[in-house]
Amino acid sequence: MYHITCRFKKTHPHHATLIYIDLSDRKMLTMKIISMLLILITMVFGCKKKVSPDCLRARIVRTTCASIVMQALNNNSIGEDNWKDVFDNNTHYDNAFAISNPCGLPSGYKVGDVVYITIAKATTSDCIRCALYDAPPLISYDIKAIGKFPCDEESK
């Protein structure tokens, strides 16, 4: 049987306030510790947002007036393999793709930034670009969303 010692302090003639509980039984203390650990584990693993399967982690590889090139970091089926950047000593990139709607990229992002995006097949765009041919990857996509944090299911 469990023994709990309680002490009450009278604050009003009809009310008592609990000021001390002594859990003297080892089993009760063990149960309390296990319960707290389970609550902590649930809080740590249960509070993560579910990442959308369409969410792509990508690095901005190159930006010019003619194209923006990204490299997919978490999906090997996206983009062109062994693409060469002619402006960077022919550096090779796997999973490289051009952004077909570069006006959709907000200002403030620069080469080397890692971002999270959702993509769609390229469509026609009225975005004005310069006429420079800078040998972008042959594969291109429209960007639907971009941010520094993983895409979540609720943002769809």
Characterization of the model:
The chain has 156 residues and is mostly beta strands. Helices cover 13% and strands 37% of the residues. The chain has a five-stranded mixed barrel with strand order 3-4-7-9-8. The relative contact order is 0.18.
SSE map:
Layout: E1 4-12, E2 15-23, H1 26-46, E3 55-63, E4 68-72, E5 83-85, E6 91-93, E7 96-99, E8 114-121, E9 140-147
Parallel strand pairs: 7-9
Antiparallel strand pairs: 1-2, 3-4, 3-8, 4-7, 5-6, 8-9
Quote the distance from N terminus to C terminus. 54 Å
Number of helical stretches of at least 4 residues: 1
Structural category is mainly beta
Q: What fraction of residues sit in β-strands?
A: 35-45%
For the report, how would you describe the main beta sheet? 5 strands, mixed, barrel
Number of strands: 9
Salient structural properties:
mainly beta, single chain, 13% helix, 37% strand, five-stranded mixed β-barrel, two-stranded antiparallel ribbon, elongated
Structure in a nutshell:
It is built from one helix and nine strands. By secondary structure, the protein is mainly beta.
